[in-house]
Amino acid sequence: MIRQPSTYAQLYDWHIRAMRGEDVPRHDGDAYAGWFKRRLVEGGPWVPVRIFVEREIDADTGELAGPERLVMEVEGIRSDRDPADTFSWLTPISRAEHDRLTDMRLRDPRFFTSTDRIDLSEAPTLPPGVF
C-alpha cells in the first residue's frame, strides 16, 4: 500500500477550524500543525510558536519514505520537546500575527528576554508604521 503524504488541508485542519472560531477539541497527548503564541512565564511577553510537519517524500514515487513528525519552533528556534507536551498552553493565531510577534521581538529590546515579566502599560509599543 502506498503511503501518501498528508495534504495541507489535513495537516492544518485543526488550526483552520480554530481560527474560524469553531470549538475544536483538545486532547492530552495531541498536537496539531499551525501558528500559535504562548507565555513562557506568568506576566511575560507572548512568544511565537510554530508547529509543522517534517517528512521525507520519495522523489520518484511521491510516497512517504518515513513517518510524518510534528516539530515545534519557539521564537524561531527548533525545540527538542514533543509539541504534544505543551500544546494545551498554546493559543492559535494567524500566520500574520505570528510574523508580527516575531518582528516585534526582533525590534523591541524589552522582548529580548522572554522569561522576564513585562508591563507594556509603562511604555506601550506602537504598531509598525506608526511614528
Q: How would you characterize the overall build of this protein?
A:
The chain has 131 residues and is an alpha+beta fold. The chain is built from four helices and five strands. The protein has helices at 8-11, 13-19, 83-86, 95-107, and strands at 34-39, 46-54, 69-74, 77-78, 91-92. Strands 4-3-2-1-5 form a five-stranded antiparallel β-sheet. β1 (34-39) and β2 (46-54) form a beta hairpin. The longest helix is centred in the C-terminal third of the chain and has 13 residues, at 95-107. It is globular, with a radius of gyration of 17 Å. The chain starts with 7 loop residues before the first helix and ends in a 24-residue tail after the last helix. 16% of the residues are buried. The model has no long low-confidence stretch (mean pLDDT 84).
Strand order of the largest sheet: 4-3-2-1-5
| Molecular shape | globular
- The proportion of residues in beta strands is 15-25%
Order of helices and strands: HHEEEEHEH
Helix content: 10-25%
Low-confidence stretches: none
Compute the number of helices.
4
Q: What structural class results from the helix and strand content?
A: alpha+beta
What is the gyration radius calculated from CA atoms? 17 Å
Biggest sheet overview: 5 strands, antiparallel
Cα-to-Cα separation, first versus last residue = 59 Å
Count of strand segments: 5
What does the average pLDDT come to? 84
